[in-house]
Amino acid sequence: MAYFIVRRMMIVLLTLWVASIIIFAMLQIIPGDPAQLMLGINATDDAVAALREQLGLNAPLFERYINWMSGMLIGDFGYSYTYGTAVGNLIAERITVSLPLALIALALSTLIAIPVGIFTASRRGTATDTSAMAITQIGIAIPNFWFAILLVYVFAITLRLVPAGGFPGWETGLWPALKSLLLPAIALALPQAAILSRVTRSALLETMAEDYIRTARAKGLPARRVLWHHALRNAFIPVLTILGLQFAFLLAGTIIIENVFYLPGLGRLIFQSIQRLDLMVVQSVVVLLVASVIFINFLVDLAYAWADPRLRRQG
């Protein structure tokens, strides 16, 4: 198991290093001068040159990459001249919105999808199974931003049960803050729940066709025990994959939803920073999100090893 973890950690570090190079290189080929765009077309040449010097844009690319990565390793994400503050402060402020939103959406998605997948798999071929799979197909096909707008119209504008957008801050109290995240979390969770429920159903049906399941049934074990104690754990491995990918998407891919609900999260921060060509903010936040995705996949690998002892022996 120790060798399994060490090998996965080496892969994580290598992947993160390659990703940082790609992100840095991609942002350097963006057309236009970042200093000129920050100051506007009426800025003088001296002002643009001074800002380029402050941003370190005059240094060679390799030196800029080394300075940026060495700073990130010690927690220094650089300084945003657009926002007039350290990038680390911006990330710390915005992560308090994006992370709870992703966790709530993932919890809702899991609580809906796993029971639906198990229920439909246990009733394969029935009208209930067919109806549930048709509903999940609709959930997959509906764009989440359109669904978000529909939720705002029904629950915020018509029924006035929750706010239509914005975030009051955690200092106003737990319930007001959670209330403002409820609609965005639902808009993110339901399409993901549709995908996860179908994966759960397919994995469970495939596991139920295995020889050891037939053996358990032949021994006279109750159907419920066969399902919960023999089939579900083995069917959970592909479900773990989707859960890891979904949390990575919910954390790093909420740009549209955060803009629909005017949430001050990381997704909206990236969107605004790209518009203003604030390279320091964009590359630091993107690398941080990439690192979170890679780390989540590492945790999923560990969950694989927990669920399937054969992986530990192979490691």
From TrEMBL:
Matching Gene3D superfamilies: MetI-like
GO molecular function: dipeptide transmembrane transporter activity
Main location: membrane
Pfam families: BPD_transp_1 (PF00528), BPD_transp_1_N (PF19300)
Keyword tags: Cell membrane, Membrane, Transmembrane, Transmembrane helix, Transport
Bilayer topology annotation: Multi-pass membrane protein
Family membership: Belongs to the binding-protein-dependent transport system permease family.
Official protein name in the record: Peptide ABC transporter
Protein's organism: Ahrensia marina
High-level lineage: Bacteria, Pseudomonadati, Pseudomonadota, Alphaproteobacteria, Hyphomicrobiales
